[in-house]
Every structure is written in C-alpha cells, then in structure tokens.
Prior knowledge:
Layout: H1 9-19, E1 28-29, H2 32-38, E2 41-46, H3 56-65, H4 69-72, E3 76-79, H5 83-95, E4 99-103, H6 109-117, E5 121-124, H7 134-148, E6 151-152, H8 159-175, E7 181-185, H9 190-201, E8 207-213, H10 218-225, H11 247-256, E9 259-263, H12 265-279, H13 285-295, E10 305-310
Amino acid sequence: xxxxxxxxxxxVRTARARIVGKIHRTPVLRSSTLDELFGARFFFKCxxxxxxxxxxxxxxxNSVFSLSDADARHGVVTSSSGNHAAAISLxxxxxxxxxxxxxxxxxxxxxxxxVERYGGEIIWVESVGDVPTTEEYDATVERVQAETxxxxxHPYNDxxxxxxxxxCALEFLEECSDLDFILAPVGGGGLLSGTTVAANASLRGIRxxxxxxxxxxxxxxxxxxxxxxxxxxPRTIADGLRTSLGDLTFAIISKGVEDIVTVTEDSIxxxxxxxxxILKIVIEPSSAVPLAxxxxxxxxxxxxxxxxxxxxxxxxxxxxPWTQAAR
Length: 327
C-alpha cells in the first residue's frame, strides 16, 4: 500500500478477512435509562471488550499480519504511550515475532504493565520535557529500526491501521442498520478515519461526528481551518487523545466527517462515571468523550438513532479521576 493511495471500503473488508478469528466481534449495548435521559435511541459498540481492551487491536492485528514472512522475522516497532503499544505487543506475540515499543516514562503504569504482559520490549523515549515531542519519538523509532530492521507500524497515520480500525464500524453497521449518527473519539484520527470510510461507503447518510477534549482540540481546529493545526500542549485526562492528526487521517476526516465537537474535562469525568454507573462497564477517559458531548448537548440528536463507539477500557484503578489520588 502506498502512502498516496486513499483508504477504501475494500481495504476495510480485506482487513476484516485478515483479522477474523484473531480479534473479538464486540457486543452492542443498549440503555433505556440513557435513551430517556437524552431523548434518543443509543447503541454502544463496546471496544472495551476487545482484545487488549481497546479498538486499536484491530489496526494492530491488520498491520502485523499483513507483513510478509521476510519482513515479519525482523519484528515490528512503534511509538505509543499506551493502548497502541499493548495492541501491537499482543498482535506480535500472536504472530510469534518481536515488538519494540518506544514509550514515554510518564505513561500510565497500567498501560506499561499491559505492554510487558503481552511481551513487548519497551524502549524509553528520552525527552527534554515531561512529554516527549514527535521528533523525540521519531528519533527513538529510527534508532530501533536501524539496529533491528523492524517494520514500522504507525499508531494511526498508516493505511493498514486505518483499515483495521474501520472494521469496528463495519461490524457496527451490520448489527445496527438504521443509525443516523456515529460518534467516535478522535486523537490521531485512526478510529475516526476508519469509521468514516465504512459509514460513507454504506450510502445511508450516516452523520459521523468526531469528539475530542477542549484541552486537546487540534482536530477541531484542523477541521475548521482546512489544514493540519499541530497539537502543542495538550492537558487532558483523556491520555489516548493527546496526539495530532496525520496527513492520511486528516485527508479522510476533512472530506467525510460532518463535524468535530469538543468537551470539557469535567464533562469527561462525569460521562465516564455515568457509563460505569448506568451501563455497568469499565471505560477509560478517552472513551467517555462522545458521551460527554451528549451531556453538553453539543449534537442535536432528538429522537435519532445514535451509535457510540466505546473505544477502550484501560484505566489505572489506583488513580480514577473521581478519587482524591487523581487530583
């Protein structure tokens, strides 16, 4: 696949065929309580029940299993602060190859533990500040590639990754054929891009809405400006949404997404707690952002069928956002 080629629905279908049996077909939950609260019908696609607890396993498995045997024997390398790192580690272990993970030292302990549990080899990213820059991540990955000849799998700006993430919406639409909206969180844009490709190909007029924290609003600013506006200093509890869009994800999102809305930190915490209490499922802050958009009435959904992608459920149980330890 060339970087210039667009991601198509055929890429998504090919990805599904490649990863079927290697990942879970996740359930869709309903809630009459939330339907009544917001005056709409909700369908929650629960990727928190996915392997590694996150939708990123879809793109990771598609990327790792698309490699030739000759390339795969050198392993894979990626950079990630958590969920993608765990997903790549699991996919590589499943294929029987090595995974090198460039991670920041500030990553959540629970996500570091997941990488180690799945057999990923962590290479710490040395940085001047607390949060590594894109250049510092890239330098670490380039060094690993030079030493190992491992194949790079980008967390989101990669056609294989985007196609894999699109399988989530493909499944969703097979089970829920009459959705008016699909809401998804957006960080680097892999999930939102794949969702857009699948939803637009259905020709059902589904409105795809991206949701992101106000304190990490580069996607909305990029969408409105018509060009990529880099993320500079994100300060959000939604650690999975602190990255900037890539050129591949921006190209898809700018053409196929209806809107991108932002939400406050307080709303993210409230939405996360609401999901735990009403849906009775563990979700992480990034997953709560679409529900936060509903709490803030950012989208007009009266009496509509609304699909919400619950992106993951990996949290640090010792630092839940509503506990004193997290403050």
